[in-house]
Write a structure and sequence with these properties.
The protein has about 190 residues and is mainly alpha-helical. It has seven helices and four strands; from the N terminus they run ααααββββααα.
Length: about 190
């Protein structure tokens, strides 16, 4: 996963002894490139869903939809507000699943609704952190002339992508329906990262 790539980059920083002609940041740059690719892959599935008709005319399901809305977008908009985040569960000695918070068989709801949207904004923010770190590593490498275009392209395309993706996600739901700052979902905090 991309989070594992962050941990790997930290260990590469500690463990790497550069070879002659190689800077210590080269392996880290490769690790962050892999992390960024991992984030892009994770996000792409959701953004593909938002564009997918799934072979269904949404207006046939919901007559209030007249804009040719893809069915994947419709499902996301309808289901995400009610998708809660439950605490993790474990398999007890009795062979039953137990909630890690309460120990009971019924799961504890940590917060109600928007867990997918929170996750997507967290992925966008984590990806932005990886881009920031990779850009910093490029500048530390000392190959400014050869890395200049790569840095500019990375920053430019990332800023455009994060801005566009964030606005697409926020545009799915009416602003008045989104949880506020005090909501335990952490949506507003994820958006502001």
């Amino acid at each position: 996963s991309a989070k594992e790539s962050f941990a790997k980059a930290a260990s590469v920083r500690i463990e790497t002894t550069p070879r002659v002609g190689q800077t210590v940041v080269n392996p880290e740059i490769n690790t962050y490139m892999a992390a960024i690719a991992g984030y892009e892959f994770a996000l792409s599935g959701y953004f593909e869903l938002l564009q997918d008709t799934l072979g269904i005319n949404t207006a046939m399901i919901d007559s209030s939809v007249t804009s040719g809305m893809p069915f994947g977008y419709y499902i996301f908009r309808q289901e995400v507000p009610a998708r809660a985040l439950n605490a993790a569960r474990y398999l007890g000695a009795d062979g039953q699943l137990h909630d890690v918070v309460s120990g009971l068989a019924t799961p504890t709801e940590l917060f109600h609704g928007y867990k997918d949207l929170v996750m997507l904004f967290d992925l966008l923010a984590d990806s932005a952190e990886a881009v920031t770190e990779q850009t910093r590593l490029y500048s530390m490498r000392g190959n400014f002339m050869s890395d200049h275009n790569a840095m500019l392209n990375l920053v430019k395309t990332s800023q455009e992508k994060f801005y566009l993706d964030g606005n697409i996600l926020l545009g799915i739901f009416p602003e008045s329906s989104l949880p506020g700052l005090a909501d335990p979902s952490g949506l507003q905090q994820s958006v502001q990262r």
